[in-house]
Design goal:
single chain, mainly alpha
Length: 174
């Protein structure tokens, strides 16, 4: 299956998309709860723009196919993901109700939704009917792997940063 460019590219695309989503959701949840003091419920409400736009874009992405190619829609989705993540990364967030923060979450969710709406169809159309169940399983596996890796690697990075910061503060105070 990996000999087909669409399958290899599709699995890497879904892996990277879910990596970003998993890492972002993990970091955002920690930031909102620890730094801004939000409850778990409030955190979920703040993250709604990402989830809602993901749902809307994923369900409406097929309507763009008559005007744009599936690959073009996926590229646009990745561009939106990049823009949304960069806004979040380089903007100092003092409030979870900051309109820029909420818009950047919506932009990111739209990008993820656009990618999701096209990816499975693009990959499935490149294989035979007999290979479709294996391909679907492969895509699901890479989706779960991406989410797991995004959460894990982000967690490791945050732990390393916290340990480094704590060690430095301890040394300064002794």
């Amino acid at each position: 299956l990996f000999q087909r460019p669409a399958v290899g590219g599709g699995t890497l695309t879904i892996l990277s998309q879910q990596f970003v989503l998993g890492g972002m959701m993990y970091v955002m949840a920690l930031y909102l709860q620890i730094e801004l003091g939000k409850s778990a419920f409030q955190t979920g409400v703040v993250l709604l723009p990402l989830s809602l736009m993901l749902l809307v874009a994923a369900s409406q992405g097929a309507r763009l196919v008559p005007r744009f190619s599936p690959r073009g829609i996926i590229r646009m989705g990745y561009l939106l993901i990049l823009v949304g993540v960069l806004i979040i990364a380089f903007r100092s967030l003092d409030s979870a109700s900051d309109p820029t923060f909420l818009v950047s979450l919506a932009i990111t969710g739209t990008g993820i939704g656009l990618v999701s709406s096209q990816l499975q169809n693009l990959v499935q159309s490149s294989v035979t009917k007999e290979q479709s169940s294996e391909t679907s399983g492969l895509m699901s596996t890479f989706q779960n792997l991406g989410m797991s890796l995004g959460t894990t690697i982000t967690g490791i990075a945050l732990t390393a940063i916290l340990i480094g910061s704590s060690t430095q503060l301890i040394q300064e105070n002794t």
